[in-house]
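quick one if you have a minute, typing this from the bus. below you get a single protein, a line of residues and a line of whole numbers that encode the local backbone shape. could you go over both lines and see whether the tokens make sense for that sequence. anything you notice is useful, everything is just below.
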Amino acid sequence: MKKLIKMISVYAAALLILAPGCTKKTYPGHDNIAGCWRGTVSGQEIVFVIDKKGANSYTGVVATFKNGVKTSETALHNTTFSGTTLHTVTNKERNICYTGILDTNKQVITGNLVYAGGKNLPLNCVLLQTAPAKKVLKSISKPLHPYRHRSPQTPVIAEDIIEVSLQTNIVKNLSDEEKLTEKDIITVINRWQGTILPHGSQTGPALMTACALDPAIEAVSTQWKNDINECTNTADKVKKIGMWAYENLAYTQGDKQFASLPGRDPWGVTDTAGNPTFKKLLPSEMKAMSIFTGKISGKCLTLVNFITSCFLNLGVPADDIIVLVVKQGGARHAMALVRYEEEILFVNLMFIDLLKNHIDDISKSYQVLGVYNHTFSLDTDFILETSHLQKIMENSDTPLVQRVFRMFSLPEHTEQRHYTQKTHWASRKDLWSQIFFTSHGDYRFDLAKYAYQSLYVQHPGLYLNAGLKTSHVKDLAGEFKKPEDVFRWIKGNIRYGSIFPDAESRIMTADQVLVFMRGGYKDQAILAGTLLKHMGYNPSVHMGEYNSWIELDNTFYDVKLGKKSAKHSENIVMEIQ
């Protein structure tokens, strides 16, 4: 199988830290530095630091930057020159390859980045100096931290942008949610590793349902439909979809910029035992993660949830999708099987292809600890071998989930498997109608509203309480002494704008506002309220159509202005504590 080449991008702000004239400095592990090059790929900039190791061997690093802050760092291996030809600079970890010519007279590298599918991007790198600046190496060795090391941008004051707009017919017909537990609600809002998928619970399917509902999924599945519109067979369609995934998705755990963070991503925290954990992201969060990676990003389970939800929007029934949680060393890994147009697809991270093309490439056996999709979750403990996969491909008339359950004698009708009225939706509109209109009392759908972070819920105050369990918010709260400090910091650091396209009826949590350094006024109010709760106050959040306020002991703070106000100046749509 040909491996696609990842393109990495860099911003001009990186040049601000390159100081010509610095003395030669040895990079750890190497004796001589050949040089530091700055180049462009598809109109964007990239910086190479290439080290000489021996007579004909070279290694080094590539660092990328955004807004003056390092966004990635990757090591280079197997770099060789023959005359003036730079044969390859291959990053084994991230599958990045470069080919080109080193012109020693002009001191430039010219060449191409070539995708397996034929896409060809020109590469042109100019030598900055014979030895890289100290600040370059210092920046490359410095770990990233999400919001603390990102340069604040001038906040925007939004005028006459609707913050909250709720449909009366939905509000009047909200489900009573009497069966939901606060524990499950907080779990699907925070979505921490180790809590969201104790198999046999409803929290995992609720998250999957929220993923399928997210506008980002509808946008991507629509793109897939356009891409495959002229394809005449399934194999070509899958190839097009697979190409999109490789070019547009990124695996955060493989990115060195997160190496120093718990869980290896900006959501990283540690549990009570000190073990790293991380968050399962909604598709809109994954899209917002592009500020770090330039792509829609997430961990293994998050990527699989995203891809399988796109297939659901392509018309694949939920019973033809099954996610397998397998044991991988001392950890767990998620991958999926999808039945698409009578073919079985294998989904693993950003990889999507016909299973039959790779039946000999994958491991001979997996210990499967759990299975789930958009309608059920189930604890398991069975060994999946290559022979089982071959049999799964042979039985073409049976839904995929049923094939797996029967093959391993899994319970098809127990309390652990949670069916609802339908396992297939014609469109996002159809799913929306089921969740908010026709399926009142359905535990998974009611819980999915909170996973989706909708304001069409009975207990919106739990969005405020969920933030009390996140380490980013707790750490920041320790830096403030009085309420005015909180509003001053938010005013000076948080940009206006939600990560959600349908922001008028959804709310960002406090940790989302911090990680992405943005949020609407109601989202900023949630951050302020959570910080104040950490500081021992008992705030009330008042959300208006265009602005939000925080009330503390009969004193009001205007979130838009970032200071005290007489009282809110418009009708309040929602109040939470």
User: Anything to note?
Assistant: The first helix runs from residue 134 to 141.
